[in-house]
Specification:
Blueprint (H helix, E strand, L loop, with lengths): L1 H19 L2 H4 L14 H27 L13 H4 L11 H16 L3 H7 L2 H8 L1 H27 L8 H45 L4 H26 L1
Helix pairs in contact: 1-5, 3-5, 8-9
Keywords: Membrane, Transmembrane, Transmembrane helix
């Protein structure tokens, strides 16, 4: 739930930033050179932009490190001993998710401000995975608990001589061989779910939204600016106090 709310906040901040950087509202009026206090405003803006890019680059790499928190033995892993001690007690049951979650939020925030990362995630494979991401989230569990574990047993039996010779190399080979079969099955199942369920439901929701949307622009803006934040706040308070 923490990640869902952070995603909503990041999306809202992205809309605010786009509005603030609109050329129609942020254009610098032309002034004579002698009337410009503090130097050329265009040069100052370029410097601020360059500094901002470098800052968000550092944030993105730090976020990647946080997302690599080991699932097990982090308190004994070099580079993670100190960070593991900072995990709050409320995360005790899922301590490995704490820094992974923080890193995910920071990475998404950084990607929204870095054209280099955006170019990578705008490639066709990444865009496709983005479209089916919710379907992947829904179907990966059922697929793993049906075909996945069966395939895993077969691959480990091949690479470890039926469990008689369990070595690090055999374990890694069995895992890689299993992934080669399981991942395509998961993606295929997600694609089927996306085409058969997810996309039609989204189209239906958009049609219902279009019919329910107020015709008065002022009323519509009031609903979007006040109604939705109020609903989100009520949900957040309910989750906070009711678990």
């Amino acid at each position: 739930m923490f990640l869902f709310y952070c995603g909503a906040v990041l999306a809202e901040l992205d809309l605010v930033r786009d509005a603030e950087t609109d050329p129609a509202t942020t254009a610098i009026p032309a002034q004579p050179a002698g009337d410009r206090p503090g130097g050329d405003p265009h040069r100052q803006r370029r410097r601020r932009t360059c500094a901002s890019l470098w800052w968000w680059r550092l944030v993105s790499f730090a976020a990647l490190y946080l997302m690599s928190q080991p699932d097990f033995g982090a308190d004994e892993t070099p580079g993670w001993v100190f960070l593991s001690g900072l995990v709050p007690d409320c995360w005790a049951d899922d301590g490995y998710r704490h820094w992974q979650s923080v890193g995910a939020v920071l990475f998404v925030a950084a990607v929204a401000r870095l054209p280099g990362w955006q170019a990578l995630f705008n490639l066709a494979p990444a865009r496709y995975l983005g479209r089916v991401s919710y379907a992947l989230y829904l179907v990966h569990g059922p697929v793993l608990h049906t075909a996945g574990y069966l395939i895993e047993m077969r691959t480990f039996a091949i690479t470890t001589a039926g469990g008689q010779m369990i070595t690090d190399r055999g374990y890694v080979a069995g895992f890689a061989l299993g992934v080669a079969f399981i991942v395509p099955i998961v993606v295929w199942a997600a694609d089927v779910f996306w085409r058969a369920v997810d996309a039609p439901v989204v189209r239906l929701a958009r049609r219902l939204e279009a019919r329910a949307r107020p015709r008065d622009d002022g009323l519509r803006d009031c609903v979007f600016q006040l109604g939705f934040p109020l609903i989100n706040m009520c949900l957040f308070v309910g989750i906070l106090f009711c678990g």
